[in-house]
Amino acid sequence: MTARSPEQDEAPRSADEGPGGSRRVRRRLTFGVAGDLADMPAALSPWQRAYEAWRAAGLSWGHGAPPREPAAARPRAPEERPAVPSAKPAKPARKPAAKPAAKPRRKTAVSEPGDVLVAGPPRPPRPPLMRRLRFRAAIGATLVLGAAFVVVAVSQGEDDAVPARPGLPAPVEADALFAADPAAATDGLVQSLAAVAADAGTLVAAGTEGDPDPGRERPQFLVSADAGKTWSLARIRTQDGTMPPLGEIPSHIAGGGGQWMAVGRTPSGATVAWTSADAKTWTRRQPSAAFKPTDRVNGLARTGGGFVAVGGTVGGRAVVWTSPDGQTWQRDESLTWIAGLDRVASSGGVLVAHGTQARKVTTRKGRRKVTRTVRSEGFWRSADAGRTWTGVSVPQGQGSYGETRGLAAGPGGGFATVREGSRTTGPKKRRKTARFGVLFTSPDGRRWQAVGRFGGGGIERFGGAPSGLAVVMRAATGFTVLRSGDGRTWQPGGSVPAGVRTSAVTVASGGAVAVAGRQGDDAYLSGVDLRGVAGAVRAERAVRALAAGPGRAVAVGSTNGGAAIWSAPDGRAWTRAGFPATGGRLADVVHGPRGWLALGRTAASGPLAMTSQDGAAWQKAAFPAGPPPLAVATGPSGYVAVGARKAWRSADLAAWTSAHLDGVATAVTATADRYVAVGGKGEGPAAWTSADGRAWTPAKLPEGLTGRLTRVAARGGVLVAIGAGEAPLVSADGGTTWAPQVLGAGLVPTAVTATPGGFVAAAATPEGDAAVLASAEGVSWRRLQVPGLSGPGERRLTALTATDAGVLATGTTTDGGRTEAPMLWRARVPE
């Protein structure tokens, strides 16, 4: 058992606050431990015994000392302080003190409220040497032995400080500790490229990479400065330098002349933008008020004066947004006769947009007139940066039919679009139909004409840039790519394999064609093996939960799209558990009276359960069909798992009974007499309690909170729950009622665990760093000085557990969105 420092319940003081901290330590020692340290005379008061304890230990008592006369304190002037008796043992050659008391030391500052001034009898004879050593050892143990997270410095005299103990260790990279599946055939992540754009020899492709679950994607930008010969992964940051949130998907990109921009959507449907000055580093911008939640941005173009985006509202009205820099936007909804815009191109100060127009058409049915709304495509032109628009016509020609496909500002400063075309020839019984494409161009966006054909079996994609035009045509197997430098003659530009879903095509200088899209669960970029681009393709790996049992720690999660378990007897040397490949992922793990249990979901989103007796060898176990469990705990009635509107209980890990739960529970823990689950209901947080895991009672939460709770920890009857908000919720009555508490300005909690001495929480800072905090009761938190949790990139501690040796945490470190690696942190923990 480790002794606790008296200051462990208080926030650490800085070095320049040393005297104040020293006085506080003395005051705590006076009432807390001094009276029990040695066999002092019972007649001494606690103050007198404390003084003798400090004197015998060789420690300075403070700013005051007992006068020599036992009857009363000698009067003194307000600016005077009593002399501080020497705390050092007298030399053997020196006779017992017979000299008059030392003259009081003068000091202009008056006593502070924290000063300890002691009055007492004359100093008794010094105890034997062994007793003094016992005093020193007892006080020293009280001060330093239990301070795994707090270093307490006690002054020797007025200004000399004892050297501080070594601080907490830094986390270590754990790439080799939490190994991926060596036999995996896939990386386990879903990657897609939604847009590609060119400016002379610079190419940029934008898309996402992430978990198969919607809302877990990471935005991704790939850039080439040599017309597609070599590629690299761009950096992405927010305006304040942190990592961008998950789930944001770029869908359109445009740039040139030192300004690049991409637009997309957040998981909630809001419009989000990214900007870049060099296409190599991108900044995620705060959503602008010019974009409403019901808007849909369908096209983006770079203009001479900035950017223009086009789209529409859910109600069916066209919207045009203009911006000089991609940060400030103006909104225009005046195009009431246009139902929506879906493409835009810019050339020479002229804009051309394509969209849908609604016309009223009246026909006769017998004697009745019937009026209906007919929607058809339309083109509009603007010569004043999008302030006013005029309709233009793109006529059919050279065997074309149907609507146009794509829109580009092509070679020579003009505009281009394409249509499907066909021609049937031969006698009636031997007629043959040839399919092709027809190109339409305009030098100024006002007058359009068909200028030529190109062969193929159907147009899949069309795009281009001033460097040239390109079209992706359907073929017998896969797709054929054609390119043109002048819009009249076409040459082969490569091929695209079958199974690729193309999203965009463009042309860089020298006629280099870039086609972007998706092939299965992988991104596709024509002519590029993305596995050779550093950081572009990563193997999925996530440590989602930690638990400790007798002599072993276990971590669960997934790698390469399959469930993964690692264990370590000491928390240092981790070994991946071997079991048949199991698609899916594990979300939580616990050790109970019948062994280890890990729960999660299969690749098909069904429940997944794994059990083990020793934490090293694991096997699949049965679990009731239905929604997958999200968390598990052990308590008074056995194992209890929770999930979406369900809870399950088992006493032996063989038979399970289910119960209804009104909400989505994402975490569960147990006290001595009940289970407590937290999660969400609707848009807000929720918590429930149950005595046996069968009947669940909603808890009372403060009003006005939003977002789910994601973690919960219990110590005795005190519980701490964290979630999307900055303030953790604390319950002092076993989960019945909850109240928010302050964690720290700007800190967002990411993990929490209970320890013998209280609670330890991990949090994310606004700068993208990680932080560790400790609290005895969950109400007041102190931030611990853990090195290695700040610096370039982003660091997160996402799982915590208490072990026999202290606390164990896992997380990730990300370098500007390029690479992500796991990290491991181990440290001692106060009781």
Automatic annotation (TrEMBL):
The chain crosses the membrane at residues 133-154. Gene3D superfamilies: YVTN repeat-like/Quinoprotein amine dehydrogenase. SUPFAM superfamilies: Oligoxyloglucan reducing end-specific cellobiohydrolase. The lineage of its organism: Bacteria, Bacillati, Actinomycetota, Actinomycetes, Streptosporangiales. This is Uncharacterized protein. The keyword Transmembrane applies. Residues 1-16 have a biased composition (Basic and acidic residues). Residues 91-108 have a biased composition (Basic residues). Keywords: Membrane, Transmembrane, Transmembrane helix. InterPro entries: WD40/YVTN_repeat-like_dom_sf (IPR015943). It comes from Actinomadura decatromicini. Residues 1-27, 60-128, 405-431 are annotated as: Disordered.
